[in-house]
Write a structure and sequence with these properties.
20 strands; 6-stranded mixed beta sheet; mainly beta; single chain; 2 helices
Length: 241
């Protein structure tokens, strides 16, 4: 019986899936836990729910890559001759998914499953908009808007010192999303807007009194001689670089 036939006919129990998180552009190695390939060992790697063959290695150091079947893996795969472990180099989000290794030793078959999750590099969030909460009210308050673009699987949060104030999360790719914060102009606290995913984060800090200035304009209309009635108009908070 051929090794491929044994792989197809092996009976497997319920396998625990190991989740591995990786930053886009890095390399990841999926370990077989085999110390050394023995005679008649065959190791087969597959990807995705359809079980597409991507690599195979035997005990006589014969290796085969099937990256022509799936262009996503072309020139990105490496096999360890001693253990059969698989390394994916320069990984990208298109390599997200389920990987399976099946290890044949004569007529015995074992397997391992890996769920690989790739995360993009995070930008530093931007304070993109700032304006009075209500143009007809006091100038003592501002609304700050922290934004990021073209992100998925991230959380955006506002902190006051080390205390979480609010947060919002997205899973699917979104062109732009943001989170607002109401602040007092005379507030002396340090605020932080943080974007994070399971393996990294980026932060922008903000001291309100140091970086923001609120302007008012007095528009005065004479009602009678020597009498001026003044209306105070509000304009947006101005970011001071």
């Amino acid at each position: 019986m051929r090794a491929e036939d044994i792989l197809m006919k092996g009976i497997f129990g319920v396998e625990k899936t190991q989740t591995i998180s990786v930053m886009e552009g890095d390399s990841v190695t999926l370990h077989t836990d085999v110390t050394e390939l023995q005679r008649y060992n065959v190791i087969l790697w597959t990807f995705g729910p359809q079980g597409t063959h991507i690599a195979k290695i035997s005990s006589v150091h014969n290796e085969t890559f099937h990256d022509d079947v799936d262009e996503r893996f072309r020139d990105r795969l490496k096999l360890d001759y001693q253990t059969g472990s698989l390394t994916i180099t320069n990984i990208s989000t298109e390599h997200n998914g389920l990987y399976k290794v099946e290890i044949v030793n004569e007529n015995k078959v074992s397997s391992k499953h890996f769920m690989v999750k790739i995360y993009a590099h995070l930008p530093v969030p931007m304070i993109t908009k700032y304006y009075p909460q209500n143009p007809s009210s006091s100038v003592s308050r501002c609304v700050l808007l922290c934004s990021v673009e073209n992100m998925r699987h991230v959380t955006l949060s506002w902190y006051k010192e080390n205390s979480l104030l609010s947060s919002i999360s997205v899973s699917d790719l979104i062109s732009s999303f943001s989170l607002h914060l109401d602040v007092e102009y005379e507030d002396k606290n340090i605020y932080s807007c943080v974007i994070n995913n399971p393996i990294s984060n980026q932060t922008r800090h903000l001291g309100i009194s140091q970086h923001y200035q609120i302007h008012s304009v007095a528009s005065c209309v004479p009602q009678q001689q020597q009498d001026l009635s003044c209306e105070v108009q509000m304009v947006p908070c101005i970011l001071q670089e």
